[in-house]
Amino acid sequence: MSINPIIINNLKGFAPTSFQKYTGKADTYITFFEYNQGSALNADDDEQITRHSIQVDIWSKGDYTQLTNQVKDKLKQLGFTKIYETEMYEEAESVITYHKLLRFFYFSRN
User: Fold this and answer.
1) Can you give 8-41 as a three-state secondary structure string?
2) Which long-range contacts (CB under 8 A, 24 or more apart) does 80-86 make?
3) Per-residue pLDDT tens for 64-106?
4) pTM of the full predicted structure?
5) Which of 82, 91, 79, 38 is nearest to 56 (CA)?
6) How distant, in Å, are the alpha carbons of 36, 41, 43, 84 from that of 46?
7) Could you count the other beta carbons within 10 Å of the beta carbon of residue 48?
8) Are residues 15 and 30 in contact, defined by beta-carbon separation less than 8 angstroms?
9) Are 31 and 7 spatial neighbours (Cβ–Cβ below 8 Å)?
């Protein structure tokens, strides 16, 4: 099961949302990727439930506090569990882009 459509369809209303790489021009956007996937429950030699570990990155030239809260709330409503959060910034040619990194896990039935 791909969880990409779940993430894109539910976060794109807050900011442009792309899998792995954003190629648009917006000052604030969201990227994400799945960094681990593994079996969470097996029965009769078949995987019944899969655990998906995803990273959501919020990029902005300004304050991303409200967007961060919207993303966390929406993913929680969808059954994602936050496991890690940190912030940083990146500077290129004297332009600072603020970066919020969020990690979640999500269980899906096969």
Assistant:
1) HHHHCCCCCEEECCCCCCCCEEEEEEEEEEEEEE
2) 80/54, 80/104, 80/105, 80/106, 81/105, 81/106, 83/53
3) 999 999 999 999 999 999 999 999 988 887 889 999 999 999 9
4) 0.91
5) 82
6) 19, 9, 5, 30
7) 12
8) yes
9) no
Cα–Cα distance, 34 to 46 (Å, whole number): 22
The residues near 31 (Cβ < 8 Å, ≥ 6 apart) are: 17, 18, 19, 20, 21, 22, 56, 57, 59
Two tokens at 76? 């929680």
Q: Which residue has the tokens 């790489």?
A: 21
CB atoms within 10 A of CB 83: 11
Measured in Å, how far apart are the chain's first and last C-alpha atoms? 7
Q: Express each pLDDT in 18-44 by its tens digit.
A: 999 999 999 999 999 999 888 888 898
Distance CA(27)–CA(5), nearest Å, equals: 23
